[in-house]
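Hi everyone,

Forwarding the result from last night's run.
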Amino acid sequence: MVIIIGYKECISKEDKVFYSLILQGELSVAQSESGNVYLTANKASIMTSFTEEYCSTLIGKQLPGNIEKVPCEEYEYQTSTGETIMLDYRYAYSLREDSVQKQATMPAANQMPFNVPNMGGIRVAA
């Protein structure tokens, strides 16, 4: 399951406004390169045809599926510490329930929503 934690206003190539929902996957335990253990939850966005008002009512709702790591063209990413790194993957929403990573998990509904760095304009539940 994933949870809707916010939404973001976007502009299409045709200069039309639309909204994307920000989804958060299940909580997982990870280990940093320095060996420290921490908790994380992958995030992805999905386009909608909804109004901003309707998007705001969806925050906190759960959807079936999960967030998957998928390959993509390499791009620059700025970390929360300000370091710029190159990535060749992104996270995307998938309806496939069987693709859940084999990690210790906790349902996303038990997590507190929070602002995501480098995703300006996101509105999250208070």
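The radius of gyration is 15 Å.

Cheers,
N.
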